[in-house]
Design goal:
transmembrane transporter activity, single chain, mainly alpha
């Protein structure tokens, strides 16, 4: 039930709702965080767990390096684009249904890949895996926005994002153990078991966090229906209930409101939701476009470094699958540390800057906490590339992998929290846009990775990536500097347009 007087809320972030997730007990909140983190880990595992098995899969299927790269690039592209669909569904049917269906699809895809006898079948059902694992990428952060207040989201985002980062950390080890001890097919049977168990946990234990009153998609449809209700006695999908007998003719069409004491109950269907309109609104804000470009570059680097490192360790250092897995754990460990510490630092800096600004905060404050990681990442990337090029002892590779993971994800944890905070009411659409930018960037990076690495070598390949990471940092700082003005102008433009409608 939603009061008519709140059709256009001034503060949709704190719109009153029944069974408000933000009033749940800490135990219940933490249980939800644990479940979505477990689901997010699957996305990380699926992308990296097969890296130690590259050579065995190429021989067994058989497949070329280019075909194997294609399987990875299509996986990450689909994983980036499909969240646009999951987001639209979650804004109508809630978060729980999306988690259940997506995990079921991932389980099915994993089973088929495990029994595949050709690279074509692997590529096709890896795409289905990607579609299934992608849901948590788009609505995981939105679920946290449902549960937690903005002041604590940085820390929670850091904890949540630690889960998919554990994929690059433990994925290569698990993949190396399974490939060495059994066969590469055991990797995908393992993924099927893990995702199936997680799906059952969501079915039994997860409580939906979506509240339509805090969704701009819902509010916009509601406003249109109320406008129709002002001039018609009945409107499909809208049920009116009055606490006092007031004729419908007393509605005020100028204000688009019904008589005092009237409440409505509205049911949305997928027909009501245009999945592209919220995305267009997100992309019409310059602050979003710039930070999404930066996020795409950041993710492409995080994805490609594990893949190219596995190729280097196999071809130049002649390590087996298990040893490669143990070396790559350094990058995952750095990513986990950067996610947790970066999230906490983001909240700390937000609180400090808020206090210095008369107890008034704005989303761009978060990005200022990433200044140190922005400055330190490019030199680490450059050093890593030339260490690999000169075949320095593997311990140096481990140190630089840890450093690259640490500083890369330190920046990304603030970026992801900013994307959510700066798009109040449509954070799922903003996060879905983020996934799309990430997916396209990683797809391109993966497609050029093999020819670039083989043609230029690790040194010059990562010199290019160091330049891209410097560009990424400058884009993030640009949003920290100009983003507030861009966002305010966009909000005023949208409010003015809404008032004319």
């Amino acid at each position: 039930m939603s009061p008519i007087s709140q059709v256009v809320p001034l503060d949709i972030e704190h719109m009153p709702v029944e069974n408000d997730p933000r009033t749940w007990s800490s135990l219940r909140k933490n249980a939800s965080l644990t479940l979505i983190s477990a689901a997010a880990m699957i996305a990380g595992l699926a992308g990296s767990i097969q890296n130690p098995a590259v050579e065995q899969m190429e021989v067994d299927l058989p497949a070329t390096s280019s075909q194997f790269s294609l399987s990875l690039s299509i996986f990450i592209l689909v994983q980036g684009l499909v969240p646009l669909v999951w987001t639209a569904i979650s804004e109508v049917k809630g978060r729980k249904l999306v988690y259940l269906v997506s995990l079921a699809l991932f389980t099915l895809g994993s089973i088929v890949v495990a029994v595949s006898r050709s690279i074509g079948l692997v590529i096709g059902f890896r795409a289905l895996q990607a579609a299934g694992s992608s849901a948590v990428i788009s609505i995981g952060a939105a679920t946290l926005a449902d549960i937690y207040e903005p002041a604590e989201r940085g820390t929670k985002m850091g904890i949540y994002y630690m889960a998919p980062l554990l994929g690059p950390s433990i994925g290569p080890i698990v993949g190396g153990v399974l490939t060495t001890g059994l066969h590469w097919r055991a990797i995908f049977w393992f993924l099927a078991i893990v995702s199936g168990a997680t799906c059952l946990c969501f079915l039994v234990f997860f409580h939906d966090t979506f509240r339509q009153e805090r969704s701009l998609t819902y509010q916009n449809v509601l406003k249109q229906r109320l406008r129709d209700a002002a001039s018609h006695s009945t409107v499909p999908g809208v049920t009116k209930a009055s606490h006092q007998k007031t004729p419908a003719k007393n509605t005020d069409p100028e204000k688009n409101v019904a008589p005092a004491g009237t409440e409505i109950k509205m049911t949305l269907s997928l027909v009501d939701v245009n999945p592209f309109k919220p995305l267009v609104l997100v992309l019409r804000r310059w602050n979003n476009v710039v930070i999404l470009l930066a996020s795409g570059l950041q993710f492409a680097f995080a994805f490609i470094i594990a893949y190219t490192s596995a190729r280097t360790l196999s071809s130049k250092y002649h390590f087996n699958a298990l040893t490669i897995g143990f070396v790559l754990v350094a990058y995952g460990a750095g990513s986990v540390a950067g996610s947790v510490l970066g999230g906490r630092w983001s909240d700390h800096e937000l609180a400090r800057l808020k206090a210095a600004n008369g107890n008034v905060s704005y989303p761009e404050m978060r990005l200022k906490s990433a200044i140190y990681s922005i400055l330190l990442l490019p030199p680490c990337v450059l050093a890593f590339g030339w260490i690999c090029q000169e075949r320095v002892h593997v311990s140096a590779i481990c140190v630089m992998l840890f450093s690259c993971g640490f500083f890369s994800i330190w920046t990304y944890s603030s970026t992801l929290a900013y994307i959510v905070d700066a798009n109040t009411g449509r954070s799922p659409s903003a996060v879905a846009c983020n996934s799309a930018f990430r997916g396209v960037a990683a797809f391109v990076a993966t497609e050029v990775a093999v020819p670039l690495q083989d043609g230029l070598g690790d040194g010059w390949t990562y010199t290019i990536w160091a330049g891209l990471m410097l560009t990424n940092g400058l884009l993030t700082l640009l949003v920290a500097w100009r983003g507030r003005a861009w966002r305010r102008n966009a909000e005023e433009r949208e409010a003015s347009k809404s008032a004319r409608c």
